[in-house]
Amino acid sequence: MREFILTCNSTVDMPKEWLQDNKITMLPLKYTLEGKTYTDKDDSALTPKQFFDELRAGHMSVTSQINAEEAKEFFEPILKEGKDILHLSFSSGLSGTYNSTRLAAVELRELYPEAKITVVDTLCACMGEGLLLHNAIKLRDNGMSLDDLVNWCEENKLRVNHFVTVDDLNHLHRGGRVSKLAAVAGTMLQMKPILAVDNNGKLGVIGKERGRKKSIAKIVDLALEASKGVDNDLVLITHGDCLEDAQYLASLVEEKLGISNILINTIGTVIGSHTGPGVLSVFVMGKERPSF
Fold this sequence. Notes:
Layout: E1 4-9, H1 16-21, E2 25-27, E3 30-33, E4 36-39, H2 48-56, E5 61-64, H3 68-80, E6 84-89, H4 97-111, E7 117-121, H5 127-141, H6 146-156, E8 160-165, H7 169-174, H8 180-188, E9 191-197, E10 203-210, H9 212-226, E11 235-239, H10 243-257, E12 262-266, H11 269-275, E13 280-285
Helix pairs in contact: 3-4, 5-6, 9-10
């Protein structure tokens, strides 16, 4: 049996050290800010603090998807080493990156007919991708084959729940998630939207709460409801340069879900470009996702 490599996009938003420790190779997306293009997660790019300070100053970050040629250049050296590939891709509901990596895989299969290269549309984003990857790593390390792991990911990806709240509605307005009127009115009234990722891998508003603490409590309550009857060995939390709020969120998760194994990480620059600073998200495995 040929060895296979697990790969992902930088939108997975897991710590670099965690990816390295688990032998995960990452295909990064890019963003452009103030006329300069950066590679997400690159050491020469802006730090999370620098990036979110730029957004707070009113500057806009524009993201770009992976193209097929970039994906091919990323995959081919792995195939040349005689290894197969399972790539867990950023949701097709939020980016064309999945389609680009799929097209690259089709072309590479013709060049390397002895190799297996499978691209899974995770229909997940941010640390939702990370949670699916976490489970895939455990199964890989327990000896699951590439084909069986692909099947497991396809069968379980819609069990990954994403619950999100943001502090600034203006970024959602720019991304077309809320109207200008709703953004202005919501900001004045301190209304905080509650968002989730649906079965099509798209982010949508599922509710709203007045005030930051209520919105944080709400996403924890949603995570509690979604995860009932499911054994979560890890809960993931991401934040847009608001660590104290993330730590408060983690304390509620531990209190209400009874889970202490919680990994907190700053949201990446690609996802953060669309959510803005102050975003908070919690990710758990459930039986299904909420419909909306």
